[in-house]
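Box 4.2: Ligand-aware structure prediction
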Amino acid sequence: MIRNLPTDLSRRNTFGMKVRCARLLEFTEAADLDVLDWGVLPAPVKVIGGGSNLLFTGDFPGTLLHAAVRGVRFTDAPDGTLLLEAGAGEPFDGLCDQVARRGLWGLENLSLIPGETGGAVVQNIGAYGVEVKDVLVRVEAYDRQAAGHVTLAAADCGYGYRDSRFKREPGRFVVTGAAFRLRRDPSPQLGYRGIREALQRNGWAGDPATLTPQAVREAVIGIRREKLPDPAETGSAGSFFKNPVLPREDFDALQERERAAFGEIPHFDLGGHVKVPAAWLIDRCGLKGRRRGGAQVFPTQPLVLVNATGDAAPEDVLALEDEIIETVRQRFGICLHPEVEHIGNE
Ligand SMILES: Cc1cc2nc3c(=O)[nH]c(=O)nc-3n(C[C@H](O)[C@H](O)[C@H](O)COP(=O)(O)OP(=O)(O)OC[C@H]3O[C@@H](n4cnc5c(N)ncnc54)[C@H](O)[C@@H]3O)c2cc1C
């Protein structure tokens, strides 16, 4: 079924920007897309999920199409694993919850990330050492270029850090569903110290064999609740900037320059490159808690910009974003790039 919805987007973006679009349509079945008269829709046409990675910079002049395909199915595979198939409109954390409750491994580290399954596979969401691509088997989509439905194996989705073929070919694919591979045998991903510490606070003695997916999920939820704003209370789109990746020589030079001021700079080695936490850079520029109008750098996690007053305007967020980029560039010579997608009337 395809239906028209009210065009007020205030409750359709977790940042809480009070904006509108020319038309908002929702479809509930993949087959609806075969009969949709694309040519009559106000352009451009943009697919949205839960709006949790979007910053509306103003009213959107075109059509927003929400993929509201629901349905979850678990199937046993001959190799002892399980296949989870889900509609693009299923809230992703709902899947994490169902999977952990069944004692299955695979999604527990991705718990409590807002948004829907379609958005998750487009974004290649990641947290605590796991990315969606690690468990994804395939994506079902409507290919607007070929005017037909396609199945894309995970290997054909061009995944990178918060990146995918869907992002690099904007407007081409409408994701309608996805399938994930889950395991019964214990396979906890405990590479992040924060998870191990949270598990220990919850009574874990340190043997991975004694863990359950539910215990890891609860630890992850605990950490996220401590650090991140609750989208139900404070508007945001999660991490606003990507963590910059520097060539090894640039990082070494930065470390030498800054050693006297900051000692060891936190970093993550990627071989020839080094990833530096953008939160650390923003914090060291003294921007934690900084406000521009209703927008603020979240005090407990400076990588997140929030709608602190509830009525922040897009201009407030954009002014704060510019100030952060410029301050970090001047102080460290590093250019931050937003992870949050900007959409509006430009
Ligand atoms: C408090 C908070 C914490 C967060 N933490 C994390 C985190 O730990 N890790 C992380 O990776 N992200 C995080 N995010 C960001 C966000 O939740 C994810 O990027 C999420 O997957 C976005 O899903 P969505 O359904 O809201 O997509 P939207 O924001 O609506 O859309 C995101 C992109 O996907 C496209 N898209 C959405 N659905 C479809 C579809 N069906 N077909 C084709 N294209 C589609 C949109 O066009 C857009 O380009 C966080 C956000 C918040 C608010």
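In the box above, the bound molecule is flavin-adenine dinucleotide. Residues 14, 46-54, 67, 88, 113-116, 118-120, 122-123, 125-127, 166, 173-175, 228-229, 231, 236-238, 341 surround flavin-adenine dinucleotide (CB under 6 Å).
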